[in-house]
Amino acid sequence: MSEAATAKVFKPAPPVDRITVKVDGQVVVVPKLSPDWQGKLVPTTMIQACEAAGVTIPHYCYHPQLPVAGNCRMCLVEFGTPALGPDRKPVTNPDGSAVINKSPRPAIACATPVSPGMEIYANTPGVKAMRQGVLEFLLINHPLDCPICDQAGECKLQEYSVEYGQSATRFVEAKVHKPKAVDLGPRIMLDDERCILCTRCIRFTRDFVGDDALGIVNRGSYNTIATYPGHKFDNNYTLNTVDLCPVGALTSKDFRFEMRVWFLRETKSVCPSCGTGCNLLIGSRENRIYRYTPRDNPAVNGPWMCDAGRLDYKWIARDDRLKDARGSRPEVRTWRDVLAELAGRLRPATAGSVAIVASARLTNEELYLIRKLAQRLGAATDTIPHLGDGDRLLVNADKNPNTAGARLLGISAKPAGANLNDFAAGIRDGLIKTLIVFREDVTRFGLGADLLGRLDTLVASNVLPNETTKLAHFVLPGCAPAEKRGSFTNIHGRVQRITKAVEPPGDARPEWEFLGELLELITDRRAPATIEGLFNQMAGEVPAFHGLRWAALGDSGVTMPLEPGK
Amino acid sequence: MTFAVPANLEAEIDELVSHYPQKRSASLMVLHALQDHFGYLTPAAMEWTAAKLGLQPINVLELVTFYPMFRQQPVGRFHLKICRTLSCALGGSHELHRQLCAKLGLDAHAHGAQTTKDGRFTVEFVECLASCGTAPVMMVNDDFYEGVTPQKADEIIGKYTS
Ligand code: SF4
Ligand code: FES
Ligand code: FES
């Protein structure tokens, strides 16, 4: 109690947590401290204040998710601070405004903290001249090979050249030549002549990934990004350096010379390769996917994604994709006939005679429809876990993108896969007569061909052929996540949308579409015709989804408490 | 590859390292010690240094390629380092370099350090040797020569060839 009294007497000045500055004459109030790349609070910098004022400062080396290096000098601005009189009080003009002492030299906006009353001048002739100067130096030894550069169209050198570049070069000396097409590692090719030495790649690799693999060798205009001779640049995140590199120096071996980026249509979606669900952009053209790039979502992946997820799109364009719906007889091959025949077989099935091996690679909406189907048929369900390597950053050991969704919807056994033995026994004993398999090859998980041969009806839905689809009486060709809409629930309970970027091949269709139709044929009740309607119905019906609405998911998703009531 | 640091050198290096609050701060001193002993820095020496200081070899390679005083090739028995920074350049260091190259049968226009066929002399430009008032200056191994006139240069070479 007496402490409180003392505190009253010696009440410290309230902490100054906001600072008012002017950017090009515009007043902005910014927090005194802002999170750095690791989230630690450090003094707010000029570049952040300018951002808050809506003034973008050109920059190369600065990246909000990396330690500040301050080496490129592109972000130089002019500034002034309030003049102080001998009494350390601000001197004022006759009109009451503060007298500003303009600094005789510029400062780098990325590394200079703001102070109260500071005025930042981001667009003066002097600042423009500095930007021009920096750019001119950066281009001196640059090969200017934009026509064949993969970065063209999304290159900061090009962008700033439009604003601050000059149409003619004043450089008459010989350019320094550096190594080209340097094979840095299994996925990365480096053109050292295009490098502007911003060190973003070094900082990301060393400080974020924790793999001190890259460095700058030699000195002055011979500075060169390199690995130690014989060492490969190979970690789970190397391809992020391609995104980070503001120029075309670091390129993806996979995407190199494949497509001009301005032809790519970008579709916002989510990576289906593990339980993390990194947000990404699908770059496609004319129904073909050319690349995945990460899409910034601070709640999930920040601006990064792993290399494996990024390259996990090739199978979508495989020639042997399942393209035709197939019923038990050759003449049954339109979707309408196949589903009608299948519904005819399922409708009279007795409870316990049908088992469903679903997949945590399917969307929430699809699993919801499977749940309804299972409820109607009195069928037991399960999913098969797929575990691999995880790391301490983004890669999750769970290689299914929707394990949480399958659990919340009651599709997976506890633990997932625990029912498979019962399924095998049920088939062996003749109790289970119909098995419906989604996206799995159950022959690899204890339900071998001999067992499957005992079934009256084997239904397989998949995107690629496997032993199970070969043995199936009914084949229902489905879609890659990039070919349909829906949502996944990641390992932390975040529900995120996936979006269609390309058309599926042949007659393949989104699973939720044909599942809805099958359900209607069996129950005479129509399922919602849109993903929106389906999601909203699911979230209203399944308590674990807390009445979420599709619209609320937005582009970056919503995290639900995974254990309601706890 | 056999790269062995003699026990007494390693003890000396460990002692050097102990002077620094962070091991990596001793990098330059360790490299100098190795170069003094072996004459130049091989990949094995750099890897040894990295392991000793808890670094990656790339960190060491950065230093070795940045600082001109570190070399990755052997030099001649007598290493002539001619300053070419401003004061010495004005004071005639390029003439001095040309004269020495001509005398030793080396190409004055070639880039970087050059060594005579007999492995006796290496001639190289270096940056400021911190005696700008007595330009041009040069060093031969650890000996320092100031105000090196053409005549003085001949004498110096004579001293090492005799
Ligand atoms: S390779 Fe790219 S990211 Fe790395 S230093 Fe050069 S310009 Fe910067
Ligand atoms: S962005 Fe500020 S110095 Fe590079
Ligand atoms: S310029 Fe030659 S010693 Fe300084």
Report on this structure.
The complex is a heterodimer of chains A (566) and B (162). Chain A has 566 residues and is of the alpha+beta class. Chain A has three domains: 18-123, Beta-grasp domain (Ubiquitin-like (UB roll), Roll); 143-317, Alpha-Beta Plaits, CATH 3.30.70.20; 335-559, Rossmann fold. Chain A has 16 helices and 24 strands. Chain A has helices spanning 2-9, 46-52, 125-140, 156-164, 200-208, 240-244, 307-311, 335-346, 364-377, 403-408, 420-428, 449-452, 467-471, 511-523, 531-541, 550-553, and strands at residues 18-23, 26-31, 33-35, 41-43, 76-82, 100-102, 107-108, 119-121, 182-185, 188-190, 215-217, 224-226, 250-252, 265-270, 279-285, 288-294, 354-357, 380-382, 434-438, 457-462, 474-477, 486-489, 494-498, 558-559. In chain A, the strands form seven sheets. In chain A, strands 1, 2, 5, 6, 7 and 8 form a six-stranded mixed β-sheet that branches. The longest helix of chain A is centred in the N-terminal third of the chain and has 16 residues, at 125-140. Residues 1-8 of chain A have low confidence and may be disordered. Chain B is of the alpha+beta class. Chain B has two domains: 7-66, Arc Repressor Mutant, subunit A, CATH 1.10.10; 78-161, Glutaredoxin, CATH 3.40.30.10. Chain B contains seven helices and five strands, in the order ααααβααββββα. Chain B has a five-stranded mixed β-sheet with strand order 2-3-1-4-5, covered by helices on one side. In chain B, helix 2 runs antiparallel to helix 3 (43-53), helix 3 (43-53) crosses helix 4 (57-66) and helix 6 (93-104) runs parallel beside helix 7. Chain B starts with 6 loop residues before the first helix and ends with a helix. The complex binds iron/sulfur cluster and FE2/S2 (inorganic) cluster (2 copies). One FE2/S2 (inorganic) cluster (FES) binds next to loops of chain A.
